[in-house]
Amino acid sequence: MSPNTLPEGEIQFHVLGDLAVIVNGVEVPVPAQKPRKLLSMLLSRAGQSVPVALLSDILWTKQPKNPRKAMQVYVFRLRHVLGYDRIQQRGEGYAVVTYPDELDVHRFEALAKQALNAKMYCDIKDLARYSAEALDMWRGRPYVDLAESAVTAHEVSRLEELRTSLLELRIGADIGLENHFETIPELRSLIMRFPFHERFRTLLMLALYRTGRQGEALKVFHETLVLLDRELGILPGREMSTTHTRILQSDPFLMSADAVLECLGEVHPKAAHR
User: Which residue segments constitute the domains of the chain, with CATH numbers given?
Assistant: First the structure.
């Protein structure tokens, strides 16, 4: 392929996990570590010009004699893979050109937005669908080729937080669709990883109650109460406390889809007036 032309057909950029460039469904190798780092950094600011000085800091701990010339070599290699027009020089920096739906991060965020809209409109089926589709795109730590860089640390943290929120939504939707048994082991595993994450604990209480394990659900609340008091000196929040009260009362509301939305922080009119 000439470096002055674009790859023919559909192209996808994957940064949720190992960097990958997919052309017509086939992965195209991005050669060598430094061109991979360069492309990852450009994709983290897709469409924006990234200054050469910043790119140099990403690529080298010890600067070469002529970093601009060395970078031009890496740019040439990327252009050979992607096409000349995909890596553009803009002012004192470079930018990668992407089009709608080509970058997995953008599709991930779009699906997350659709999932949040489904929660707002109390649509459990769409909530399950969009949150699951988004999570299926996650292949590992974002921008893994830049793992040692502080420049993308905030963006990586933001995406990981978004993934955690999507896990809440997808598991909540599964409970709402009466897939209670499947969610219990997953929630227990997540609580081991995130011991102070109250929403996972609240969803576990709900799933246990809906499978007839009221005592175990109350035990989760008690364990959380002790943990938060001992480690942080605080009490469980509103969602968990409300769910605990409803369990003590064997409230029929807990078997409804609205109960799931309540656990996810969506105050539903029916729940608010109970």
Answer: 11-96 (1.10.10.10), 179-274 (1.25.40.10)
Asked whether the whole model's pTM tops 0.85, one would answer: yes
Mean of pLDDT values over 182-193: 97
Amino acid at 194: F
Q: Which residues of 72-83 are buried (b: 16+ CB within 10 A; e: fewer)?
A: eebbebbbebbb
Give which of 72, 110, 79, 87 is closest to 41, Cα–Cα.
87
Mean pLDDT of all residues belonging to the chain: 92
DSSP letter string over 158-204? HHHHHHHHHHHHHHHHHHHTT-HHHHHHHHHHHHHH-TT-HHHHHHH
Question: Environment class of residue 214 by beta-carbon count within 10 Å: exposed (0-12), middle (13-18) or buried (19+)?
Answer: middle
pLDDT at residue 157, as a whole number: 95
Q: What angle do CA 106, 110, 114 make, to 5 degrees?
A: 170
β-sheet with 11-14: strand ranges across = 11-14, 20-23, 26-28
Q: Burial of 122 by CB count in 10 Å (0-12 exposed, 13-18 middle, 19+ buried)? A: middle
How far apart, in Å, are the Cα atoms of 268 and each of 74, 174, 221, 244? 54, 18, 23, 18
Predicted pLDDT of residue 243: 97
Query: In which band, very low, low, confident or very high, does the pLDDT at 270 lie, cut at 50, 70 and 90?
Result: very low
For 217-221, what is the mean pLDDT?
Answer: 99
